[in-house]
Specification:
8 strands, 16% strand, decarboxylase, binds ligand LLZGTKA7, TIM Barrel, OMPdecase_bac, 238 residues, pyrimidine biosynthesis, single chain, lyase, OMPdecase
């Protein structure tokens, strides 16, 4: 899990995923299945990617009452994903229920997937958080607070931006995962993201993993873009 570059497969259908993956040959990747793809293709999409030997982050961001999340996670656990997630705003009891669901659903002998919590979305700015969520503390404090609640609930880590990863590591320990989306190589289109960082910045801050979507999937040459980001993330000097 540590040092992973996770590609966000934000595609509308399986055919587009197949076309995209063709370029990567036999390379085993860490792939993220989010709402768009899962809502179109369902659980078979996860099984398909696992059968091909890839690691899968099933990014469903569960956020509901504890009983509903427990039931949802029980079924997600059966799909064999390596990582799943919830929104930390659902609270400690909901996150504990998520873990109970995963433990109940995971196949005999299999490992429970990592379960991490979204703190503040990387598309949220501090100004927006204060205005729309009525949270008056600095955004970093809100992220750290959610990370602490997630840790207390027994979760394995959080989704945060690269800007908060360093302080989370120092306050919550190096074994607590910090998974950072909002990654943009310098000069890349920022789009709807607000707290963006380069792969090198994320590495320097000690992120456990980065999640990269459009800078790879929308690139003119996705494989080339993937390799450039991977090299920057892994600190390879060219
Ligand atoms: O705070 C969050 C949580 C999840 N995401 C997801 O990561 C990818 C990022 O895609 P880009 O195209 O690189 O912006 C996307 O699937 C989001 O759903 C996030 O961006 N921020």
């Amino acid at each position: 899990m540590n040092n992973s570059l996770i590609i966000a497969l934000d595609f509308p259908e399986k055919r587009k995923v197949e076309e995209f993956l063709q370029e990567f040959g036999d390379e085993k990747l860490f792939l993220k299945v989010g709402m768009e793809l899962f809502y179109a293709e369902g659980p078979d999409m996860v099984r398909y990617l696992k059968d091909k030997g890839h690691d899968v982050f099933l990014d469903m961001k569960l956020h509901d009452i504890p009983n509903t999340v427990k039931g949802g996670m029980k079924n997600l656990a059966r799909l064999g994903a390596d990582m799943v997630n919830v929104h930390a705003a659902g609270g400690r009891e909901m996150m504990e229920a998520a873990l109970e669901g995963l433990d109940a659903g995971v196949s005999a002998g299999a490992e429970r997937p990592y379960c991490i919590a979204v703190t503040q979305l990387t598309s949220t700015s501090e100004e927006q958080m204060k205005r729309e969520q009525l949270i008056s503390v600095p955004l970093q404090d809100s992220v750290i607070h959610y990370a602490k609640v997630a840790r207390t609930a027994g979760l394995d880590g959080v989704v945060c931006s690269a800007y908060e990863a360093g302080i989370i590591r120092s306050e919550l320990g190096l074994d607590f995962l910090t998974v950072a989306p909002g990654i943009r190589p310098s000069g890349n289109v920022v789009g709807d993201q607000k707290r963006v960082a380069t792969p090198k910045f994320a590495k320097d801050k000690g992120c456990s993993a980065i999640v990269v979507g459009r800078p790879i999937t929308k690139a003119e040459n996705p494989l080339e873009s993937y390799l450039a980001i991977k090299n920057e993330w892994e600190g390879v000097l060219l």
